[in-house]
Amino acid sequence: MDATFHIANGSVLAAREVELGAVGPFTAGGNLVGSNAVGIGIGCGQGPVVGTPEQYTLLDQDNAARIPQRSQVIGGVGLTTSADWPSSGGVEGKATLPIEAGAATADGSGEVTGVGLAGLASLAAGWVNTVI
């Protein structure tokens, strides 16, 4: 099973990279899935999703297909600049960035390499990793 994770937009990643400095890239290891949107319940390649339409739907809360499944950090971008305080930096609306699926690197570093987007086209097929 591939790990699933959500990557914040480019401006958020750039800001976090500055905060980390020499510690390492924000898109590696635990930081990669540290956005509080890690695809909980998404198991790409695990077969059918068991249940009935009443228990699990193919459409999200806005009646849109989950191809790919979209997500966002709590409040939207998840970044507030000091100039915007005391605002939380949150944004309204539906998530626009996809949940990605990936595999851990073989070197044991904990880094995950994205290999596709997690989607759910049918309950019978289950969650699939669409290669990007």
Q: Major β-sheet, in short? A: 5 strands, antiparallel
Instruction: Give the N-to-C terminal Cα separation.
Output: 17 Å
Output the number of helix runs. Answer: 2
Report low-confidence residues grouped into runs of 5 or more. Answer: none
Give the overall form. Answer: flat
Instruction: Kindly state the number of beta strands.
Output: 5
What is the average per-residue confidence, as pLDDT, rounded to a whole number?
74
Evaluate the radius of gyration: 16 Å
Tell me the helix content: 10-25%
SSE string: EHHEEEE
Structure description:
The chain is of the alpha+beta class. The chain has one domain. The chain is 11% helix and 21% strand. The protein is built from two helices and five strands, in the order βααββββ. Strands 1, 2, 3, 4 and 5 form a five-stranded antiparallel beta sheet that branches. A hairpin with a 7-residue loop joins β3 (97-104) and β4. The longest helix has 11 residues, at 10-20.
Task: Give the gist of this structure.
The chain is 11% helix and 21% strand.
Give the topology.
Blueprint: E1 3-6, H1 10-20, H2 29-32, E2 70-71, E3 97-104, E4 112-120, E5 127-131
Antiparallel strand pairs: 1-3, 2-3, 3-4, 4-5
List keywords for this structure.
11% helix; 21% strand; 132 residues; flat; single chain; alpha+beta; 5-stranded antiparallel sheet
